[in-house]
Fold this sequence. Notes:
The complex is a heterodimer of chains A (261) and B (305). Chain A has 261 residues and is mainly α. Chain A has two domains: 1-34; 43-259, MetI-like (MetI-like fold, Orthogonal Bundle). Helices cover 81% and strands 2% of the residues of chain A. Chain A has a two-stranded antiparallel sheet with strand order 1-2. The longest helix of chain A has 39 residues, at 174-212. Chain B is of the alpha/beta class and 305 residues long. Chain B folds into two domains: 4-253, Rossmann fold (3-Layer(aba) Sandwich); 262-304, no CATH class. Helices cover 30% and strands 28% of the residues of chain B. Chain B has helices at 46-54, 93-104, 110-123, 139-152, 169-186, 197-203, 232-235, 239-253; strands spanning 4-13, 20-30, 35-40, 61-66, 69-70, 78-81, 157-161, 189-194, 206-210, 222-223, 260-273, 291-304. A six-stranded mixed β-sheet of chain B has the order 6-7-8-3-9-10, sandwiched between helices. Chain B starts with a strand and ends with a strand. The interface between A and B is medium-sized, with 16 and 21 residues.
Amino acid sequence: MKKLQLDWLILPMVGFALAILAWHILSKTVSKDLPSPGKTWSDSREYVLKPFAKRGEMDQGILRFTWYSLVLVAKGYAIALLMGTPVGFMLGLSKPFTKTFDPIIQILRPVSPLAWLPLGLVLFLGAGKQASELGALFTIAICAMWPTVLNTAVGVRSVPQDYLNVAKVLKLSRWKTLWKVLVPATLPYMFTGFRLSLGIAWLVIVAAEMLTGRPGVGGFLWQEYNALNYSRIILCILTIGIVGFLLDRLMSVVERRFKTA
Amino acid sequence: MAFLELKHVSKSYGSSATRTAVLQDINLAVEKGEFVAIVGYSGAGKTTLINLIAGLFAPDEGSLTLNDVEITGPGPDRGIVFQNYSLLPWLTVYENILLAVEQVFPNAATAKKREQAEKFIAMVNLTPAREKRPGELSGGMRQRVSVARALAMDPQVLLLDEPLSALDALTRATLQEEISRLCQESGKTIVLITNDPDEAILLADRIIPLSAGPGASLGPEIHVTIARPRDRKAINHDPRFKEIRRRIVDWLLGEGGRKRVTVSRKLTLPDVEPEDLSAPRPMWAGRPRARRHREEKRETVAMNL
């Protein structure tokens, strides 16, 4: 029991303490412009202690900003899954489909969210005020889609032949084979894809908000940089990191739930 | 015309250059209600044979007919118990069996389907494990579920593909008796594939040995005249049992095993050359590295499989 506490509680604490110490030393010696941990706290306490306050468009509590970002991520992520999963299934099931579209996917996959965003804004120019939101959604969806697509495809391809033989002997219809055999057998792979996709969606949102200036963690970060409030940049970075970590934990819990299947 | 009939069936795998014949000129006729066991070596093509009957593979040559209808694809009229159970791990025992029942009686009332599924679970004594998933069951229990699923398809022919080979000896013995009982009760036509002559004698009416591959073919049939129910303890002392066993094993080791397989391979023999201690050693060179050299040899091994 004692050993467990040392490993799981004390050692991470030591890690954080060391990191903060290094940060402190850095701010006092090499980079004088870097706010020290103490200054960061005193500058951002207003945002942390009143996390849901709304004082102005770009002056809100940190959790309120996080909430805006999460809502946008949820929408974009949902689009990514709804598009990615069927495409993944098609890739896994059909060789001609793979041959036709795999090259395109391989070319589009490595494109950075920063490159997609302007195109997204152009695409929805006609939408007026909504353009920035739709552009951001487009960017999140298209960037977050690929892990889901590829993992689903791999999952479908690696469904054991035994299960397919059972489906054949029972003469299950295509529809029933899909839902009773293929989907359950692919679920663990799909969830691995979903988890990676969520991580990417969260990465993309920050970039998208920075470029569009939407209220949200990323938008706030960029605004504070322009306003020379460097301490709050660090607050934003920590928030982004913690939220990303929590999202990943959440997905891994869901994933583990389905791994048993 | 026999109920299940295989005529001049051949099957090979691989493309033209590396093509290996698995089964050659298989002729088999199974009467309705008969229990036929095919005994052969591991890797001889037994599973290929059962997959051909199941319709999962198509033969290269020859024809397979069931009830005078050509077998062109898989279907629930040939229920199969797979060697590795092949239960769907995300479904419970009940759901696995219900899936089969629903496919075979799509128009039956829900209550009727449920009742059928329950019946087959009870038949293999698994009612207490009804809501368990295959992962929570032992190997023997899984194979029972698999048997129940095959029976639930209400097949015309039941195909057993080495159903017990993955089980330990004791579980195997219990399940052999259970399968024997189930098969007698159901009165179905059964083809059993096995590598265990004792199992074949215990269960089957007729035993046909399959020669060693590649290009395996069926040997002379042996009728098992021992009355049922066969008691595994008593049967060991039955002279007929010993005689049948001797004939199967003799054929498999003699004529049926005569196909010699030659494997030739390249061997690399590692060797370290001894260090020459008398050689002058300059100071800066450090320890001399041991010199290695390899010898390559070709070896051809011929063996009876």
